[in-house]
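Q: Structure tokens for this one, please.
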Amino acid sequence: MTNHLVILKKPYLDAILTGQKRIESRLSKAKLSFFERVLPGDKLFFKQSSGTVCATAMVKAVCNFDNLTPGQIIKMKQQYNRDILGSDEYWQGKSDSRFGFLAWLEDVKSIEPVRINKKDWRAWVVLTEKENYGLLK
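A: Here is the predicted structure, written as tokens:
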């Protein structure tokens, strides 16, 4: 099992906590370091953007995509957006993405908020023994 730190804007985090958002999606033009490193059984720590780490979840299932086309992204929106909850602007902004993955969430739990000292712009971090922000105690 691998642990991950996932940074989200408040509306998406709130939707995960209420059970409305059941799939976390990440789409990008470049193949980011965490692509294909998220597996069923992994633990996610959710941090609100500019806020605290306040929830966890387990990854139930994952789909990885590469060489995406705009047409495939439209199909992805049609098939999965009821569980992703992406706005039309979100999908338009991702229409030229080439890589991505979908992670189905389960066992979502609120936790006592934890403030961490994270200063970089990464929105997803694979946690390691060396880089874990004190979350892996």
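A few notes: The chain has one domain: 3-126. Residues 3-126 form a domain with the Archaeosine Trna-guanine Transglycosylase; Chain: A, domain 4 fold (CATH 2.30.130.30).
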